[in-house]
Design a protein that fits this description.
By secondary structure, the protein is an all-alpha fold. Helix content is 52%, strand content 0%. It has helices at 2-15, 27-38, 50-69. The radius of gyration is 13 Å and the shape is globular. The chain starts with a helix and ends in a 20-residue tail after the last helix.
Length: 89
């Protein structure tokens, strides 16, 4: 979990330095994070594996869900990341 949240923090620091609080994170930040994450190198591969990307996004979503459930004062007004079911083939 730590690595996933640090990765998102690194993304925000490099692309949205004006975001200084979790309460400022919006859906737009999440949507911009997805392709950024897909371009990241993997540990032994040119890019992160799909499972790693899915895990990092799930970790991020659960972080926001939990702080919303806990009524954390620093939480955004709503959870900025939604889970999507894969489209049927």
């Amino acid at each position: 979990m730590d690595l996933g949240l640090r990765c998102f923090a690194s993304f925000l620091a490099s692309t949205a330095p004006g975001v200084t609080s979790v309460s400022q994170v919006t859906r737009r930040h999440i949507e911009d994070y997805k392709p950024w994450l897909a371009r990241r190198p993997g540990q032994n591969k040119a890019a992160l594996m799909t499972a790693t990307i899915t895990h990092r996004l799930s970790t991020l979503r659960m972080f926001f869900v939990h702080i919303d459930e806990w009524s954390w004062q620093g939480a955004p007004p709503r959870v900025p990341i939604v889970s999507r079911r894969p489209a049927p083939r």
